[in-house]
């Protein structure tokens, strides 16, 4: 039995009584807005833990489910848009002016299955699985580490598939820090600011130290990535491992890989007709940023739609981290990933090379 499977079995009892377990778990309160608890080696928002229990006890997987997985701030929103647009292209042609992705945030088109509200208790006290209503194949998302996915989702006998997107941890850290600062400020003022225009209440140095200690949402980032990376090598037919930087460099090829993996490859006719290009364009940062649905309003957890779209670049960490900070984080990550076959490109090319 592999380690994640063994872990899943030994936590089975905990999932049954998460409310009692939560107060006993190690607590981290230095990240703004979300107290974190350490569970099975990862730091997760306290309020997510009941959702984690729910996905293990209540969620009913289907053989054709597709899970989009990521460490936060690694390309989740983009992957959600690409998967949704690709899978639903017959019903919603990407050039359609009324396409759902032009009217709604990608987070409203593809839900995180561990959000506590997703598998909620109905008003009558009965337990409800809101995903039951979705037509197959369903696309769901998760920030959970691989080892915390329910066994029924990842078992060899289950034909569900997982797409993981990873990103240079330095960019994920900077993106998360700016997002957190902006979100905190917006919540306080009732309005967001301009790009990078954030109040100095949460120093980057603090966020950096916490990130390096693995004490951030979903952290340690390198173990999150490693879990999916190893599984993608063990079962490439079940886990597709994508890289944000590679997607930026060549979105076309990566969308085609995604479509093939999801079981809906683009036909030659579609390629010739420009459907792949249309999906790439629809889901581009600029297009989503400018769309009606994202210029105002809020999405999951009351977060402003616009907060999910900033620069969308590889290597923006250079504008925020010192070379010493970058070297320190690289050393931590490289030390853990050594021998795994996965390396982050570091300063040389701002990208991950595998
Ligand atoms: P989440 O985990 O909270 O859902 P996620 O979407 O993973 O966030 O990450 C947000 C980052 O993806 C932002 O990066 P930045 O802060 O470095 O700019 C955001 O700009 C980027 N992003 C969002 N949509 C796209 C897109 N369509 N193409 C490329 N990058 C994108």
TrEMBL record:
Coiled coil: none annotated. It is an enzyme of class 2 (transferase). One of its GO terms (molecular function) is sulfotransferase activity. Its EC number is 2.8.2.-. Pfam families: Sulfotransfer_1 (PF00685). InterPro entries: P-loop_NTPase, Sulfotransferase_dom. It comes from the Eukaryota. Keywords: Transferase. Residues 63-340 form the Sulfotransferase domain. Belongs to the sulfotransferase 1 family. This is Sulfotransferase. It comes from Miscanthus lutarioriparius.
């Amino acid at each position: 039995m592999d380690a994640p499977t063994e872990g899943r079995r030994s936590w089975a009892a905990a999932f049954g009584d998460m409310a009692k377990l939560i107060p006993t778990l190690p607590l981290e309160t230095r990240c703004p807005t979300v107290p974190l608890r350490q569970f099975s080696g990862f730091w997760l928002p306290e309020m997510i833990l009941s959702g984690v229990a729910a996905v293990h006890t209540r969620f009913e997987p289907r053989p054709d489910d597709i899970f989009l997985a990521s460490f936060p701030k690694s390309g989740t929103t983009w992957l959600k848009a690409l998967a949704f647009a690709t899978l639903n292209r017959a019903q919603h042609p990407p050039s359609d002016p009324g396409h759902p992705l032009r009217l709604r945030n990608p987070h409203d088109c593809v839900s995180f299955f561990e959000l506590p509200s997703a598998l909620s208790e109905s008003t009558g006290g009965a337990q409800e699985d809101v995903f039951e209503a979705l037509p197959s194949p369903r696309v769901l998302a998760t920030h959970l580490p691989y080892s915390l996915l329910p066994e029924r989702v990842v078992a060899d006998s289950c034909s569900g598939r997982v797409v993981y997107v990873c990103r240079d941890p330095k960019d994920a850290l900077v993106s998360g820090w700016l997002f957190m600062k902006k979100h905190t400020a917006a919540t306080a003022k009732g309005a967001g600011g301009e790009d990078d225009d954030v109040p100095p209440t949460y120093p980057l140095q603090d966020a950096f130290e916490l990130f390096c200690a693995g004490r951030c949402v979903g952290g340690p980032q390198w173990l999150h990535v490693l879990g999916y990376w190893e599984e993608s090598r063990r079962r490439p037919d079940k886990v597709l491992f994508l890289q944000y930087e590679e997607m930026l460099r060549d979105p076309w090829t990566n969308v085609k890989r995604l479509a093939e993996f999801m079981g809906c490859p683009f036909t030659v006719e579609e390629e010739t007709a420009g459907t792949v290009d249309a999906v790439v364009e629809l889901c581009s940062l600029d297009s989503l940023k400018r769309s009606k649905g994202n210029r105002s309003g809020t999405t999951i957890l009351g977060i402003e739609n616009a907060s999910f779209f900033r620069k969308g670049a590889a290597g923006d960490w250079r504008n925020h981290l010192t070379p010493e900070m970058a070297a320190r984080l690289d050393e931590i990550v490289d030390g853990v990933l050594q021998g795994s076959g996965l390396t982050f490109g570091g300063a040389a090319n701002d990208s991950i090379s595998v």
